[in-house]
């Protein structure tokens, strides 16, 4: 975790949904946003003070903080993190969750970091666990952090290289290829 950039450490450790200290007494002052540029939790009244900053919304699911994959994917490679569906959006948990039950059998796939049993074939139960696990090898974490969010990381030559890597990793052409071309029903006379 030490090697993770400040915004990422903040994202997985902030207490969201507390009342905003900058806006006591305002209605709806719970901190349900996160500014990546400032590495700070924000309430809706804070938002006008962070124009042009990268701000993502935090949601609650099963009493835990979650972010939408669509928001996080710009900043961090979410591959391998277990996703859940919340209001038709895919979300991931920010932090590791306390396992309530011990795994019933050893076949259940455990989270690579916290060993919580995962019902899916994913590697991690949460963003925290992926960051923690990748943090054990410095390069792994660097690779997972998107170019846009890695700007504060002091690797000047790295940005250009990683933006070219950020292209689509899997060609989606397989399905198209198998689809038959629609031919005109009447064959042309020769
Ligand atoms: Zn900001
Ligand atoms: Zn505020
Ligand atoms: Zn975990």
Quickly list its features:
single chain, 190 residues, alpha+beta, six-stranded antiparallel beta sheet, two-stranded antiparallel ribbon, 6 helices, 22% helix, globular, binds zinc ion
Structure description:
This protein has helices spanning 6-13, 69-72, 127-134, 138-144, 158-165, 173-178, and strands spanning 33-35, 40-42, 55-61, 64-68, 84-86, 89-93, 109-110, 117-118. It is an alpha+beta fold. The protein has one domain (6-151). A six-stranded antiparallel sheet has the order 2-1-3-4-6-5. It is globular, with a radius of gyration of 21 Å. 23% of the residues are buried. The model is unreliable at 153-184 (pLDDT under 50). It binds zinc ion (3 copies). One zinc ion is lined by residues 35, 37-38, 50, 53.
Overall shape? globular
Largest sheet: 6 strands, antiparallel
Enumerate the strands of the largest sheet in spatial order, edge to edge or round the barrel: 2-1-3-4-6-5
Small-molecule binders: zinc ion
Q: Low-confidence parts, pLDDT < 50 over ≥5 residues? A: 153-184
- What level of helicity do the residues show? 10-25%
Q: What value does the average pLDDT take?
A: 81
Q: DSSP helix count?
A: 6
Terminal Cα span = 72 Å
* Element-level helix/strand string: HEEEEHEEEEHHHH
Number of domains: 1
Radius of gyration: 21 Å
GO molecular function: zinc ion binding
Organism: Eragrostis curvula
InterPro entries: PLATZ, Znf_B-box
Protein name: B box-type domain-containing protein
